């Protein structure tokens, strides 16, 4: 982006074939305009977007990340991941964050580890290398006859272990 005098403007690169993203970008454009910021949407084909990411040819870019409850932010935010092919393609660097990530990844005590992750998240909120906009909710309909289905904070049976779900013989409609 460029800041000339009191004017700030930038391009927002986004995947052109995602209607939800397009609507979000247009909403943000209007929101920024109210604050005097000119954001120009840049709809882009996926292959071109990947090339732009690899060449670091963008002012701002929209992407979607998914994660578990305890996310390991190493690949996205650690300084060592700014190299070519790394996922820290925004070149974000913060030695204090790197230290917290390294400690959290080595800590086996869950309570201590979570304190380290929370401290790391506070740095990310303060530095704001990304603007986290939302997290999608999911809705699942499951027949009540299905057994051994566990609901977790991440969804159904998402505890990273294989689980056999089944309909007990007494509840089966066809045998």
TrEMBL record:
Top-rank lineage group of the source organism: Bacteria
InterPro entries reported for this sequence: SBP_5
Gene3D superfamilies: Dipeptide-binding Protein, Domain 3, Periplasmic binding protein-like II
GO biological process: peptide transport
Gene Ontology molecular function: peptide transmembrane transporter activity
Record's keyword terms, sorted: Signal, Transport
Family per similarity comment: Belongs to the bacterial solute-binding protein 5 family.
Protein name: Oligopeptide ABC transporter substrate-binding protein OppA
Naturally occurring in which organism (per UniProt): Methylophaga lonarensis MPL
């Amino acid at each position: 982006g460029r800041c000339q005098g009191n004017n700030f403007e930038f391009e927002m690169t986004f995947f052109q074939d995602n209607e939800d993203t397009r609507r979000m970008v247009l909403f943000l454009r209007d929101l920024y305009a109210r604050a005097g910021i000119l954001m120009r949407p840049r709809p882009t084909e996926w292959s071109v977007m990947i090339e732009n990411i690899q060449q670091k040819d963008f002012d701002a870019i929209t992407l979607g990340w998914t994660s578990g409850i305890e996310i390991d932010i190493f690949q996205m935010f650690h300084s060592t991941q700014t190299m070519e092919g790394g996922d820290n393609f925004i070149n974000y660097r913060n030695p204090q964050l790197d230290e917290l990530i390294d400690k959290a990844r080595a800590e086996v005590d869950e309570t201590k580890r979570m304190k380290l992750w929370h401290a790391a998240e506070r740095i990310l909120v303060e530095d704001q290398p990304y603007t986290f906009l939302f997290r999608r909710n999911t809705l699942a309909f499951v027949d009540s006859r299905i057994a051994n289905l566990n609901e977790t904070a991440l969804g159904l049976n998402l505890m990273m272990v294989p689980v056999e779900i089944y309909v007990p013989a007494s509840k089966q409609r066809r045998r």
